What does this fold into?
Amino acid sequence: MGDGDGWADCDLGHTHWGRFGAAGLLAYHRDADGQMWILLQQRAWWGLGGGTWGMFGGATHSHEDGVTGALRETAEECTLDTGLVRVRGTRVEDHGGWSFTSVIGALDEKADVKPASRETRRAEWVRLEEVEDRKLFAPFERSWPLLRDAMKGLVLVVDGANVVGSRPDGWWKDRAGANARLRDALAALNEGVRGVPGPVAFDRCFPEIVLVVEGAARPVADEQVDGVRVVAAPGSGDDHIAGIVRNAEPDTEYLVVTADRELRARCEEAGAHVTGPRWLTDRLERR
It folds into this structure.
């Protein structure tokens, strides 16, 4: 048993379940026809908000972050294999002294999910447009208008040549080595629950990271590492990056890291967000 079960008061004068806060998982899946499905829990009749629908979740323990707590609670309350969830981001509702963390995660398959504890009456995949037809758990009902716009992923596209070239550390003597060091540093961005602030409706994003290399740095793509997809541009790195954002995946936002003005304009025209190398290097240096 953990130490989070129990009631807590917040600075707004409310009483909440979870001595150290609470967290829940909002899992979604988009099928081949483009239909978005949301996994919902119907709460047991005997509990708080009995019979209403919302996300799986509950109290977090003192040693847990919101992501860990949400996935654990979900695994306890239903049969979903939470190891298959691709966490996209988190959104925190802070009441002062108590907070609830909504964890948004994607699933590649609409798995059959059943109740696994007495806290869950039913588990069901619901069409996005039909969520509001259910009798919703009051806190979830309040947050749903914001959460429904947050079900998307972030792809962080890094212009390797530009980022490496932004620091006078001797990179021109060994372009491949400099890009390999950048690759390894990028791999740490999603370790644990660090993530990054992003342009989508999250407090913290856990992006797919794509490092684009060119020229003498192309051999770096021969050695892939967990957490970063290294792509060797066959020609111009700028052209390859512009092509990535022009061919955007559904439910996905793109954040391109570059200081190149022409590339910035091309990416913004294609609908991507753009930030400079300093934004990235500041975060890498905080590891």
